[in-house]
Write a structure and sequence with these properties.
Length: about 300
């Protein structure tokens, strides 16, 4: 039924511990959302590929997992279903299927429901821990990014690293995300250039804003808050929609990290993850073209002399 794709399986292996951790944080909710998302995501691609007499790609499993982990705990199941159908259909299928899409499908679906249902997507939080038994009190479930936006006190670095704080299903598992990044880079599944350039660009710009008084969010705490790490490791590195050339990947990462910081500090949105990656996807082909032109301009050397 599925096209075998080793790279996609590796991404799933890296995401599985994060998904299990989300179950500890929020109990049955990630299971329910995941069941709905995987069903409608696979069904959407199946119906499209059936017309082309082709198999469903294992990439849709990665898309469904990423989309699930990017959802707030209290998202209604029907909204999650709408989002994944939109993402698979308009972010991937209409371009011809796997390998032809311009934008990351999971990001496409998330942005659609983020804009369409902003109240749910920015307020569907609950207190994490003990398999979701701590409730959904609005005060106790304020996310770190919401606290930054409202000028409140951020959780300690220790709490941010532990992952026991409100947020989307998969965004707070800092340690597991870092381990996943190491695994993906080691297996040559994801580009370390993209990851490093995003984080460096974000930290440099965020530090500039913080130390000049333009932002109240400390750089390191801001880095560990929200979905920055999760999106950097698992979504921005999508081999289809990201830059392909080595230099292009660095430009691509710098663009995403810069947009991340700008949106977080100067827009009405507390999080800029999806928009930043969408911007990167848009310009990825152009950045690769620039990278090729720069390489051609470099003088070649023969016997130590410029040719």
């Amino acid at each position: 039924m599925f096209q075998k794709q080793v790279m996609m399986r590796r991404v799933l292996y890296a995401l599985l511990p994060i998904y299990l951790f989300s179950i500890y944080l929020y109990g049955w909710r990630p299971l329910a959302v995941g069941a709905v998302v995987f069903f409608f995501g696979i069904l959407t691609e199946f119906l499209f590929m059936k017309q082309r007499k082709q198999k469903v790609s294992e990439a849709v499993l990665v898309t469904s997992m990423l989309f699930t982990l990017s959802m707030p705990p209290l998202v209604p199941l029907w909204i999650a279903a709408v989002g994944i159908v939109f993402g698979v259909l308009f972010g991937k299928s209409i371009y011809g299927g796997f390998g032809r899409n311009i934008f990351n499908p999971a990001i496409t679906g998330r942005i659609f429901i983020y804009i369409t249902f902003p109240t749910v997507m920015t307020g569907g939080w609950m207190a994490p821990g003990r398999f979701g038994t701590l409730g959904s009190d609005a005060v106790s479930s304020a996310t770190p990014l919401a606290l930054i936006h409202e000028g409140g006190t951020l959780p300690s670095l220790g709490k941010l690293i532990s992952g026991i704080h409100p947020g989307a299903f998969g965004e707070s598992a800092v340690i597991l995300i870092i381990l996943g990044a190491v695994y993906l880079v080691y297996t040559k599944t994801a580009s370390w250039r993209i990851m490093v350039s995003i984080l460096v660009a974000f930290l440099v710009l965020q530090s500039t804003f913080y130390f000049t008084g333009l932002s109240a969010a400390p750089p390191l705490e801001s880095l560990l808050s929200g979905s920055l790490l999760f999106v950097t490791v698992f979504m921005a590195t999508d081999p289809v929609s990201s830059a392909k050339k080595k230099t292009g990947q660095i430009f691509y990462g710098i663009l995403i990290g810069t947009v991340f910081s700008l949106i977080r500090n100067f827009s009405l949105f507390p999080e800029g993850a999806s928009f930043a990656v969408l911007m990167g996807n848009t310009f990825a082909p152009l950045l690769d073209e620039w990278a090729v032109k720069l390489k051609k301009k470099k003088p070649s050397r023969v016997g130590g002399l410029n040719a």
